[in-house]
Amino acid sequence: MRLLHSWPARVLIAVAFVAAGLGRVALAQADPFLGTWKLDLAKSTYSPGPAPKSLTVTYSKAGPETKVVVDGVGGDGSKTHWEYTAAVDGKDYKMMGNPDGDTVSLKQINPRTVDVTYKRAGKPMLVNRRTLSADGKTLTVTTTGTNAKGETVKNVQVFGK
Fold first, then answer.
1. CB-count burial class (<10 Å; 0-12, 13-18, 19+) for 140
2. Which residue(s) pair with 79 in the sheet?
3. pLDDT class of 30 with cuts at 50, 70, 90
4. Does 9 have pLDDT greater than 70?
5. Domain 31-160 coded CATH 2.10.70.10
6. What's the pLDDT tens digit per position in 67-109?
7. Does the structure show a pLDDT above 60 at 21?
8. Cα–Cα distance measured from residue 153 to residue 48, given in angstroms and rounded to the nearest whole number
9. CA dist 35 to 17, 60, 88, 122, Å?
10. Where are the domains of the chain?
11. For the chain, what is the HEC assignment?
């Protein structure tokens, strides 16, 4: 019992608590979605079409929030670019360049699933359910709802890193 009251033992215990705390902080900040994801057209389906010719989505940290940048080439050859920075807290955040919404909100379903709701003028338009595979190598985005053209959407996009 006297050992716990010695100076080296107290330092060792303090270091252990700090290390454990830092480990928890690192785990809490780890976001398995971060990185650059490229669309696998062969595994993806679009209704209505046409499918894009290419699509890349990049997730990066922006302080406590995540920045999402989408770049691609549409089925008609037009370039697409849109982006937003948001926290996974259910609040609305400004989205720029997406014809299907001017705000976005994110809700965590489980550690590997996030629902992303696009709204235009406060009205929900589309919901993307982002699901990450257990090995972290495949991101599947299932989109349902109504797009800006009034069309019913049911897309399944499969991305790889």
1. middle
2. 73
3. confident
4. no
5. no
6. 999 999 999 999 999 999 999 999 999 999 999 999 999 999 9
7. no
8. 6
9. 31, 6, 17, 29
10. 1-30, 31-160
11. CHHHHCHHHHHHHHHHHHHHHHHHHHHHHCCCCCEEEEECHHHCECCCCCCCCEEEEEEEEECCEEEEEEEEECCCCCEEEEEEEECCCCCCEEEECCCCCCEEEEEEEECCEEEEEEEECCEEEEEEEEEECCCCCEEEEEEEEECCCCCEEEEEEEEEC
Ramachandran region, residue 121 (left: φ > 0; alpha: ψ -120 to 50; beta: rest): left
Is the peptide bond prior to 8 cis by the omega test (within 30 degrees of 0)? no
Cα 106 from chain centre: 8
pLDDT of residue 2: 53
Omega within 30 of 0 (cis) for the link into 48: yes
Taking phi first (over 0 means left), then psi (-120 to 50 degrees means alpha), and beta for anything else, what does residue 11 get? alpha
Interatomic CA distance for residues 20 and 152, integer angstroms: 49
Residue showing tokens 């053209």? 149
